[in-house]
Amino acid sequence: MKIEIFGALSHWFIGGINYTNLLLRSRDIHYCICCMQTDWKAITKPEDLRLMMKYAKIGRLVVAVCTVFMQSSILMYCTGKAVTKETIIIGNQTKIIRMLPCAVYKNLIPVHTSPTYEIVLTTQFLSGIIVNSSAIGAIGIGAVFAAHACGQLTILMTSINEFVNGPKDQKNNDGFNNMGEIIEGHLKVL
């Protein structure tokens, strides 16, 4: 029982840390989002647009799978614990106790009475969803940024291949400009 309580409490505690970290890094996140917007506006070739769309779809897919998996897991855990009942036999009396996802309130307030149990259970359901939402937000932001960086690096690789395999007379005319643009793009992605 104590291990179950520790698991649930650590989940809520780490979720609070995730949320705090998102709040503290909000300026950095905003800066990265602005850079992504700039990258999307700078795309001129249709091939580059297709590549960026491909990686954006991959990022969205990762976020969607993560969201469905994490939210359904917390809802199933909370529902499973709420449906579970524990039977306690004391002398000639049998007492059926409904379980909570995180039973830390047992000694503090009478959670086995009717309105209190429902209020505490609803609060724990909502807090589980909120905690998971902050974790999903952090994972989602990371996945979208990583997918965007992969798209930008793929575009840079295409530019490098075009520069290396292009005609020699074109390299002599504007080779330094193209190479400079490639290097600037690479530094920006990093």
From TrEMBL:
Pfam families noted in UniProt: 7tm_6 (PF02949)
InterPro entries per record: 7tm6_olfct_rcpt (IPR004117)
Membrane topology (UniProt): Multi-pass membrane protein
Major localisation: membrane
Transmembrane spans: 58-77
Superkingdom to which the source organism belongs: Eukaryota
Location of this chain's protein in the cell: Membrane
Keywords: Membrane, Olfaction, Receptor, Sensory transduction, Transducer, Transmembrane, Transmembrane helix
One Gene Ontology term, aspect cellular component: membrane
GO molecular function: odorant binding; olfactory receptor activity
Name of protein: Uncharacterized protein
Organism whose genome encodes this protein: Heterotrigona itama
